[in-house]
Amino acid sequence: MKKISLVLMILFVVSPSWALFCQFCGQDIPVTSKFCLSCGKQVKDAGSEEKPGSDHGVQSAQSVPIDESFLKNYEPIEKIEMLLSTTNYSSVVTLATEYRQRMTLNFQKIEPKLSDYSPARKKLHSIYLRKFDILERYLDAWNRHSNGPKKGQGGAQKEKLLFELARTNDMIGALKDSKNDSGVLSKIEGMERDLDKSIKEFVVTSPYLAVENRRITKNQPIWIIEEKAGLVKVLHMGETDLSMPISGWVPQYDLEKRTTWKSENPPSIVYHTYQPPTQVIFVERDSWGWNHHRRYPFGYRRSSRWKFGGGCW
What we know:
- The chain is α+β, with helices and mostly antiparallel strands.
- The protein has four domains: 2-45; 68-198; 208-258, no CATH class; 272-313, no CATH class.
- It is built from eight helices and eleven strands.
- Helix 3 (75-82) packs antiparallel against helix 4 and helix 5 (119-147) packs antiparallel against helix 6.
């Protein structure tokens, strides 16, 4: 009995290497073999059997790239943007309203599927939502700039929104060209942070801020367009009676003193080499034979009556 148990134990230890059978010819094959040694056909590895619910062989929604079929959902937004090149606001109102309605319906179709989208698609969707909001606000500002009231404020908001729109398009372009690059999402998040910082508005805290011979009064909002070489270009974002917004360059120190804005760049320092002032001394000889010295700021000069012969030295 003990011998039989020992033989069975040995067979149990050895048997795993020959535990599989070919599904085509029925011959024994090793566990690690992918082909039958008898008929040569490829066999199915037991360890590679798909588990229920596995995505093997099926492209998951989490890995689907951004393709043209997906981008078609946002075509109405692109068409609204194309209308901005038109100079007459009244000529685009009807088309803009139609594209708005189409895009609203597309958003309603996308929302139920959003949880199954890849991170890149989710990010692209959120950026298109932002772009749609920018275009909505631009059309409103365009209407006020064209028809009033507050034409100057409407013009200022148009300029700022065009800047925001351009930066948003940069993010969309980066996502389209990413090819499912895992690092693109962190890049986009950095671009969003920079954009949010660059569109921040500030407030005048002094009685007024002088810009291009005009005054922006206290508590009025301003937007920083550009900063360079100790100068800052600002745009008045508040209400004004003017048809065009107030915009111009202001010294950095003056802007920091009169508004809530503070530069993140250190002020530029110009170093000057010290040079002592020069003097000019005129020496004349009077009738009594004495020399009188007169000080002038450029050097020495002697009168023509001097005994060495006259002229300038």
